[in-house]
């Protein structure tokens, strides 16, 4: 008896998130001294941005997330397990904050695009975020996969960055009993 499995959109996105998180964790260099955990008071955070569509201008290496969600999700790895969100318009200036920022060390990201029930993926290096209206633009370098010119529903899974346990250092804002945060 043969059956054909047709994953739901939720299953596809959850699978992409798991692969992106696992790949990002494996790709990260081990800290000096063989430590597996970030320094005390720090956690590794990943970010997720979603959009109703995407466009890519190859001549300018410009990725546009069309009608990007006004909220960027973030979550940490073990042992902290912190999850939350921040306004996307706050994420853009956050890009260059701190000595170990995304500006100084651009992140890798997995771009997952759902096209007619088929998940397409490209791995990119992100630079120069610019939010114009409801569109978020990045300059990208394609590392792997094939970048379509246009695409449907899109999720961007952005690599790890080490940050204080309270993202954006708002004196305990994220330290709720459920380890959930909203930064606005």
UniProtKB/TrEMBL annotation:
Superkingdom, taxonomy of origin: Bacteria
**InterPro entries for this protein:** TAT_signal (IPR006311)
Leader sequence segment? 1-27
Q: Which PROSITE patterns does this chain map to?
A: TAT
Sorted UniProt keywords = Signal
User: What is this protein's record name?
Assistant: Uncharacterized protein
What is the native source organism of this protein? Paracoccus marinaquae
């Amino acid at each position: 008896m043969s059956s054909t499995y047709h994953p739901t959109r939720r299953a596809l996105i959850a699978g992409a998130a798991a692969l992106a998180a696992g790949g990002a964790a494996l790709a990260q260099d081990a800290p000096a001294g063989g430590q597996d955990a970030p320094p005390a008071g720090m956690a590794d955070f990943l970010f997720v941005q979603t959009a109703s569509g995407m466009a890519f201008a190859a001549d300018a290496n410009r990725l546009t997330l069309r009608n990007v969600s006004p909220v960027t999700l973030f979550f940490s790895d073990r042992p902290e397990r912190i999850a939350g969100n921040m306004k996307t318009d706050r994420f853009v200036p956050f890009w260059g904050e701190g000595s170990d920022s995304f500006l100084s060390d651009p992140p890798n990201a997995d771009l997952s695009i759902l096209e007619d029930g088929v998940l397409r993926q490209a791995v990119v290096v992100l630079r120069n975020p610019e939010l114009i209206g409801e569109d978020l633009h990045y300059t990208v370098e394609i590392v792997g996969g094939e970048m379509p010119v246009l695409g449907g529903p899109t999720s961007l899974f952005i690599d790890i960055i080490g940050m204080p346990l309270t993202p954006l250092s708002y004196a305990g804002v994220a330290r709720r009993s459920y380890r959930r945060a909203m930064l606005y």
